[in-house]
Structures are given as C-alpha cells and as structure tokens.
C-alpha cells in the first residue's frame, strides 16, 4: 500500500539531512512517495510567507509530514512556525523518545524513555500575555483544560499499552500551582484508573529533574504539560547525547508531523557534516505511526550498527570522520545486506 507524505526539507542543514533520510527510507522499500513543499525562510523568499497555504493544504490532504528544521526570522511580526503548525492542525501530543545509542558522548548507555508533552495549551498561549505601558510588569496566563489534560494523559497511557511500557509518570507542580497544574494532576489520576495494568506515578517537576539526572532508568513514559514537557524533553535528550539524537512527533486526530527537534545550524549548512540521526529517528517513528513497525525498528537497528561498527563513516559530532552522505551510505548498505 502506497502512502504519500508531505516533505518539508527545511532551512540550513535541513535539505542535507532530509536527502540522507529519504535515501534510507527508499532503501527500506516502504512504498512511500514524496511531495515537496516550502516552509521557513525558503517559503518566505519564494511565497512571501513562512507557511504557504499549499503547504498546509498538502499536510491536511496527506495527513503525514516529515519536516526538517525551520528557521523563524528574529524580530517582531514573525511567530514560531512550529507553534503555528501545532495550532493549525491541533497537534496536541508532542512525543519525544530518548534512547541510548553506542558511541555517543553521554554518561548513560541504557536510557529508553518517552516524554509525552501537551502541545497546545498551558503556559505557551500568545493570548493572555501583556506588559504594562511603563514596561515594568509583564503578565501571562496559563490555561489548562480538562479536555486537553484528559486527551494527553490518555494518549500517554495508550502509547504505553501499545509499546509494552510498564509505567507512566505524570509530572506537575500542583503543590504550588494548585489550579492549572492541580487540574492536570486530578485528571491524570482519573485516567490512570482506566489502565490498572500500567503503574502510575506522580512527581513534582523539580524532583523529576533531579531524578532524571540521578536515576533516569526509573522512568518509562513521562506525561506532562506544555512548559514542563518542553524543558524535560531537552533534559532527556541530554541524557543520550544531545539534540542530534532527538526526534519529535507532533500528533493530532487528523494529522501528524515528524521532525528533528534541533535547529537549522546555518553555520555548518552546505559543509555536509550535519548529523542526520534525529531526522532518521523521526522517520522511524513515522513508520511506526504508519503501522510499519518492523521497518521503523530496522532504521533504529541500522543506526545502532553503524554507530557501533562504522565510526569512520559517521559525522564528526558523533566522533567520526565522515559526512552526512557517508553516514547515509553506511546505513543504506546495512539495510540492503
């Protein structure tokens, strides 16, 4: 069965790592076809807008997109492209796996956890933000709803059930932020009752940060609100070597966008030394989403094997002497054995 996906190559190193990723997907013979659309600085130059209407229409039509890193220009008048996409398609679940791979610069070698972050409300609302005329006082509203909390926590438990995970930890600050964080925690407790086979744990966010540094192996699936999830997911990426190994999925009822969560790295664009792993791992998560779990596992296995045994072909940030292209060459060769 053929599946067409909308491909947004991105800015900076985006086209380089996307080309490498599509080569690997093609080597798997997944039956995927690609339609390419502009977003970010390329779209601004070609269309006068960061996200053209035809790009949004393509994602709506195909319901699946693979996205390279995009640059939002600095300055007033430009809002985050990622935030716009999440709101437009109601991509309420941000899913960030953190998995250890060999040969990485990290102090742990046995991390395997997932952060599930509520993606559409919480502290990241543009509405409700203001600053007084004298510039001395800034105000910001945190908006958490029962519906938003229920669907993100249920998503986390369903994900745990599907992937054979044993525990879900709800991270909160209900001891101090008793309204918004308290509502999230109350709903998490209610939803947990529907999944008696999965251990439920609740943890205050500051303690969760400490525990992740001291004993990350105790975690399995973490579910939390928007701001806390943004911070914790990057912390978890640090446990496995950084954002170069950090894929992200933004999931809604009608669309899903898979991405590398790192930036566009314009300082190394064109030098062919960008690490494609984050986008490759996002593509593997996309294959899982498309019920091609075995092929997603093959991508992760190929990355693991190449990082372990073909050091000369991996990129310098991973301790190798290779390029983006030689990394892809090694992965394709492994998959075609």
TrEMBL record:
Lineage of the organism: Bacteria, Pseudomonadati, Pseudomonadota, Gammaproteobacteria, Oceanospirillales
Organism: Billgrantia gudaonensis
Annotated InterPro entries: IsoCit/isopropylmalate_DH_CS, IsoPropMal-DH-like_dom
GO biological process: one example: isocitrate metabolic process
Gene3D superfamilies: Isopropylmalate Dehydrogenase
Name of the protein in question: Isocitrate dehydrogenase (NAD+)
Entry keyword set: Oxidoreductase
Family note: Belongs to the isocitrate and isopropylmalate dehydrogenases family.
The keyword Oxidoreductase appears for this protein: yes
Protein's UniProt keywords contain Ion transport: no
Molecular function in Gene Ontology: isocitrate dehydrogenase (NAD+) activity; magnesium ion binding; NAD binding
Domain Isopropylmalate dehydrogenase-like: 4-331
């Amino acid at each position: 069965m053929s599946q067409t996906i909308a491909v947004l190559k991105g800015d900076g190193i985006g086209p380089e790592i996307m080309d490498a990723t599509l080569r690997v997907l093609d080597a798997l013979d997944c039956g995927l076809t690609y339609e390419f659309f502009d977003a970010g600085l390329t779209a601004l130059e070609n269309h006068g807008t960061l996200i053209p209407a035809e790009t949004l229409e393509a994602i709506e039509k195909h319901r699946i997109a693979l996205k390279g890193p995009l640059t939002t220009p600095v300055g007033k008048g430009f809002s985050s492209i990622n935030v716009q996409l999440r709101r437009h398609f109601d991509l309420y679940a941000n899913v960030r796996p953190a998995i250890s791979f060999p040969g990485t610069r990290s102090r742990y070698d046995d991390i395997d956890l997932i952060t599930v972050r509520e993606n559409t409300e919480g502290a990241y609302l543009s509405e409700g933000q203001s600053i007084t005329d004298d510039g001395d006082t800034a105000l910001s509203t945190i908006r958490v709803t029962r519906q938003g909390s229920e669907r993100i926590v249920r998503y986390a438990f369903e994900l745990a059930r599907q992937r054979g995970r044993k525990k879900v930890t709800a991270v909160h600050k209900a001891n101090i932020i008793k309204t918004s964080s308290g509502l999230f925690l109350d709903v998490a407790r209610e939803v947990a009752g529907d999944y008696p086979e999965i251990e439920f744990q609740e943890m205050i966010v500051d303690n969760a940060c400490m525990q992740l540094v001291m004993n990350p192996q105790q975690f399995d699936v973490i579910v939390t609100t928007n701001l806390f999830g943004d911070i914790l997911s990057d912390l978890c990426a640090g446990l496995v070597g950084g954002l170069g190994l950090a894929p992200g999925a933004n999931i809604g009822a009608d669309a899903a966008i898979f991405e590398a969560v790192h930036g566009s790295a314009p300082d190394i664009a064109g030098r062919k030394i960008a690490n494609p792993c984050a986008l490759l791992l996002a593509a593997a998560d996309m294959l899982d989403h498309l019920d091609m779990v075995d092929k997603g596992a093959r991508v992760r296995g190929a990355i693991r094997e190449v990082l372990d045994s073909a050091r000369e072909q991996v990129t310098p940030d991973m301790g190798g002497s290779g390029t983006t292209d030689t990394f892809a060459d090694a992965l394709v060769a492994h998959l075609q054995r």
